[in-house]
Amino acid sequence: MFPPSLNTTRILASKTARKIFDDESSSPKEEPLLKENPRRFVIFPIQYHDIWQMYKKAEASFWTAEEVDLSKDLQHWDSLKNEERYFISHVLAFFAASDGIVNENLVERFTQEVQVTEARCFYGFQIAMENIHSEMYSLLIDTYIKDPKEREYLFNAIETLPCVKKKADWAINWIGNKNAGYGERVVAFAAVEGIFFSGSFAAIFWLKKRGLMPGLTFSNELISRDEGLHCDFACLMFKHLVNKPSKETVTRIIKNAVEIEQEFLTEALPVKLIGMNCELMKQYIEFVADRLMLELGFSKIYRVENPFDFMENISLEGKTNFFEKRVGEYQRMGVMSGPTDNTFRLDADF
């Protein structure tokens, strides 16, 4: 069962998903992405090659929760300070619920509205990956938290934790907003995956820098890479829109998301609990927001530098040793290969 707030959203979203909104930026007649497409049931011939390549990139990055080794984490968990355990468990509680909210939007809104087959392929695969993310976070909570009452408290974070509820409500309200066009909502969910997740990802990577929690930090690598791709895809869909929201509208959405995320990680659940600097975290969130604004085709808002050098070293296109047993740039063998890449040649270099 969904919490009451989600049930209300489901009903509202279902009623509005197939409507043509008053906002002209959402009109199927005006937007090729939303226009009725009788060929949407067949994939070929590919019409949007850039969107299709994003889908293939997502497909190549498939992984499952079973591939993450948590065997060493419990020993590390027991050695953490109480405030460090508190911080990690509450961040995981937010993550465990947030992926379900992202999927709620995909199922109830985006996949109902977008008529382009290539984009529907991506959204369908994203739904599967968000399920895996949610499973992973739930598994982490289940592994670390032994008290059943505390586990239940964390699993129900949308209702039990005000700081999590505030972020969740912001995203849920965008799902049910019948006055906002597709373009505005694409920006809002790019902010959810690009800004709401960014500070928490950085906090977990901070633990990796300290050599802690290898299972948690490895899953964080995989999930942050996926969410980065989902955010990139949202920006790509935005670029394909004919009638885009104004710079003022986009700026308002992004700044609102930044304020909520800064409050979450510097006041409600301050990163100082794990030894991070709150002011630098605020700056990092602004840096990430500027990067998102550029990707959406607008100028920066904050114009700040990345204060976390360790985040510069974590490339989602990483140069990990090919022979390492488990690598954060995990990719299915051959999925991104060209048609001749696996052909045996006598003139090949060995």
UniProtKB/TrEMBL annotation:
Q: Tell me which domain of life the UniProt entry assigns to the organism this sequence originates from.
A: Eukaryota
**Gene3D superfamilies with a match to the protein in the record:** Ribonucleotide Reductase, subunit A
Q: Which GO biological process annotations does it have?
A: deoxyribonucleotide biosynthetic process
Give the required cofactors: Fe cation
Question: What's its EC?
Answer: 1.17.4.1
Q: Which family does it belong to?
A: Belongs to the ribonucleoside diphosphate reductase small chain family.
Protein name, please?
A: Ribonucleoside-diphosphate reductase subunit M2
Give the organism, scientific name: Echeneis naucrates
Q: What is the lineage of its organism?
A: Eukaryota, Metazoa, Chordata, Craniata, Vertebrata
